[in-house]
Design brief:
The chain is an alpha/beta fold and 390 residues long. 31% of the residues lie in helices and 23% in strands. Helix 3 packs parallel to helix 4, helix 7 (128-137) runs parallel beside helix 8 and helix 9 (198-216) runs parallel beside helix 10 (241-256). The structure holds pyridoxal-5'-phosphate.
């Protein structure tokens, strides 16, 4: 059976980089994540060059590996922090508190106090209840207000759970001022791996509306936080970072004129994803029925080992096999005893028919939301290991 698929896998499965990865991985037990920090640096610089006026707050939940955080610290990045544990990690790496924001709308009052005690002065909020906590635990802090977005067009949407409508936010803003906080700006997140750049237009239109309504109440906001959503290189093609930056810059000027407010951006995936490759092994290749159209290929890594973003087959990782020759279409699954641990079934992946049990498999673009999502000892499998490839 030959494949009719035309995935642009040559982008990943050929060339010097693939050779280097294969050589480095050779003697190491799978599965593991290989991280190339140099690529993180490239992504950071590319974004900075294309949005020179923006302050980058790396969303560290995407990949909190010390080497990545230290590199971004050296390059001048700020950090979007979601928990006290992330905060402690950054402090231990010598990042100063002025370079951090507490970007989680869901936080305990004690944790707000902890952030305050460590010197963090910038907090997100999206509710009256939360802003009351901030006012008690971090008096006088700067706050920004997260507006609810649709998340349509995103491969990994973040809709519904975060943010509130402009009406709610305006009331929260007035309360913040009354409580002695500093209403500072507005944030949003258009959904992760957002392939429709127009979503920033819609979001910025609501931000502008909120700026105007605040002004009518005597509150002058001075910051826009563009959130995350910038793309990494999975199988579905996207525009490049330069196109995203140019288009978003256009929207900013359309709504805010020539002189922009302070601009913050919080990339996670677009900074970290391309730098990672999960190296796995084929545990089993089998057929469910004698005349089955597609064989099943079971890897030693799956949904619980770091590939949870294959949920509903949301993200299509480029998967490279080492065998060569004519291809067949297969179903790919993980190694655990949970039937949800199937990676790709509705979308069949091409695999050379000569691929065999024991072969190595290379899963690209796995530097974000993989190791930090992997479960701990489900079925006894240890957490995903990682190595740094210089
Ligand atoms: C996760 C997160 C991000 C990063 O989003 P990406 O799509 O990975 O770039 C940015 N901001 C906030 C508040 C987040 O929770």
């Amino acid at each position: 059976m030959t494949s009719s698929y035309a995935f642009p896998l040559e982008r990943f499965c050929d060339g010097e980089r693939f050779e280097k990865i294969r050589r480095f991985s050779n003697a190491k037990e799978t599965p593991f994540l290989l991280i190339e920090p140099a690529l993180v640096g490239d992504k950071y610089r590319e974004l900075k060059e294309n949005l020179p006026f923006a302050t980058i707050y790396y969303a560290m939940k995407a990949n909190p590996t010390n080497e990545i955080l230290a590199l971004l610290r050296e390059l001048g990045s700020n950090f979007d922090v979601a928990t006290r544990y992330e905060l402690d990690q950054l402090l231990s790496l010598g990042v100063s508190p002025e370079r951090m924001s507490f970007g989680n709308t869901i936080k305990k009052e004690a944790d707000i106090a902890y952030f305050r005690s460590k010197g963090i002065g910038l907090f997100v909020t999206d509710s009256m209840e939360d802003v009351e906590k901030i006012a008690r635990a971090a008096p006088g802090a700067k706050v920004f207000f997260r507006v609810l977005t649709e998340g349509s067009g995103a491969d990994w949407p973040l809709s519904r759970k975060f943010g509130a409508s402009p009406d709610v936010l305006l009331a929260v803003m007035l309360r913040a001022r009354e409580l002695g906080l500093v209403p500072w700006g507005v944030s949003f997140h258009v959904g992760s791996q957002q392939r429709d750049i127009k979503q920033w237009d819609a979001a910025l239109s609501s931000v502008k509306g909120l700026f105007d309504r605040a002004k009518a109440e005597g509150i002058v906001l001075s910051m826009i936080n563009l959130g995350g959503g910038l793309p990494a290189n999975y199988i579905e093609p996207t525009q490049g970072i330069a196109e995203y930056a140019a288009t978003i810059t256009g929207y900013l000027h359309k709504y805010f004129g020539k002189t922009l407010p302070e601009i913050i951006i919080e990339p996670g995936r677009s900074i970290a994803a391309d730098s990672g490759i999960i190296v796995a092994e084929i545990v089993l290749i089998s057929k469910k029925t004698c005349d089955a159209a597609n064989r099943w290929v079971y890897l030693d890594v799956g949904k619980f080992g770091g590939l949870i973003e294959t949920l509903d087959e949301a993200l299509h990782y480029p998967v490279c096999f080492t065998a060569e020759g004519p291809q067949e279409e297969v179903i790919i699954a993980g190694p655990t005893c949970d039937s949800m641990d199937i990676l790709y079934e509705s979308r069949k992946y091409p695999m050379p028919s000569t691929a065999a049990i024991g072969d190595r498999v290379y899963i690209f673009t796995t530097g974000a939301y993989t190791q930090s999502y992997s479960s701990v000892y489900f079925n006894g499998f240890p957490p995903l290991k990682s190595y740094i490839l210089e």
